[in-house]
């Protein structure tokens, strides 16, 4: 009798354990469905960035810096930041780059303050002050340690633009077809010059105009202008300006200038914080790349 009772108890426990085990198992196909469910794909931001400098060429060391920025952002974001580079005129004329970013026609642009200082007065300071900075490193301190970049960002926010970064660069030089040995020699000269430097030379009696880079050589060759402000000797040589000018003004009037990356503010605000941080990292990358090239000028 005792054995019979024990057998019934053991059998009951065995049946109960089997029932509980079966209740814990997923229904046929249910586990497979759960495994098939995946997180939605991350959003990819396909942006266009137009440069005011032509496609890569010996005279334009800006292009490799921009390519480094785009490559860094793509790799660091695992493809979520997908930027395509365009060159002058491919979407809008170079001189319209600022307005195009402001209105959202372009998501980004890589340019020089000469192209937008007429829209915002702070651009004259972004370009650099004549006869002040000794080199581009001092200008970097001015932007990133003394806080000038915050002033620029506040000013450009009024134009629906986020100022991603400044990339202090080489000095600017003046080449002319006529000698300048004293201040009076500026009188009557027509010069391609920019920003506050142009204001100084206008005051000295010159007539300063703005021309995009590709227009400088033919304008010098044809005598439309008597001289041009451009980069250091390396950049001048790469542009071939020594072929159409005879004189180089020293000491250099401006030892540092800055290049910029501007972003449409609405597009910037759409980005999640991690991608904004990557773009800021890309800005540091392009700054480093740009400064590596300064010796070439």
UniProtKB/TrEMBL annotation:
GO annotation, biological process: transmembrane transport
Keywords from the UniProt entry: Signal
InterPro entries: DctP_fam, TRAP_DctP_sf
One Pfam family this sequence matches: DctP
Name assigned to this protein: Uncharacterized protein
Organism: marine sediment metagenome
Taxonomic lineage of the native organism: unclassified sequences, metagenomes, ecological metagenomes
């Amino acid at each position: 009798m005792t054995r019979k009772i024990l057998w019934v108890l053991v059998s009951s426990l065995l049946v109960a354990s089997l029932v509980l085990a079966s209740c814990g198992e997923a229904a046929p196909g249910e586990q497979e469905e759960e495994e098939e469910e995946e997180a939605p794909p991350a959003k990819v931001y396909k942006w266009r960035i137009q440069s005011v400098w032509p496609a890569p060429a010996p005279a334009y060391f800006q292009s490799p810096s921009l390519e480094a920025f785009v490559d860094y952002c793509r790799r660091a974001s695992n493809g979520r930041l997908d930027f395509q580079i365009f060159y002058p005129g491919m979407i809008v004329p170079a001189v319209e780059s600022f307005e195009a970013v402001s209105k959202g026609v372009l998501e980004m642009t890589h340019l020089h303050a000469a192209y937008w200082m007429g829209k915002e007065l702070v651009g004259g300071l972004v370009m650099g002050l004549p006869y002040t900075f000794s080199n581009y490193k001092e200008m970097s301190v001015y932007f990133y340690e003394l806080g000038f970049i915050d002033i620029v960002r506040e000013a450009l926010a009024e134009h629906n633009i986020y100022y991603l970064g400044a990339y202090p660069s080489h000095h600017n030089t003046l080449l002319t077809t006529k000698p300048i040995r004293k201040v009076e020699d500026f009188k009557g000269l027509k010069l391609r010059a920019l920003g506050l430097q142009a204001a100084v030379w206008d005051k000295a009696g010159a007539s300063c105009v703005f021309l995009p880079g590709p227009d400088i050589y033919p304008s010098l060759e044809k005598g439309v202008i008597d001289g041009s402000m451009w980069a250091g000797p390396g950049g001048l040589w790469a542009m071939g300006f020594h072929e159409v000018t005879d004189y180089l003004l020293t000491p250099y009037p401006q030892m540092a200038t800055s290049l910029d990356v501007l972003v449409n503010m609405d597009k910037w605000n759409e980005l999640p914080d991690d991608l904004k941080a990557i773009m800021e990292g890309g800005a540091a990358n392009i700054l480093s790349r740009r400064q590596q090239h300064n010796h070439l000028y």
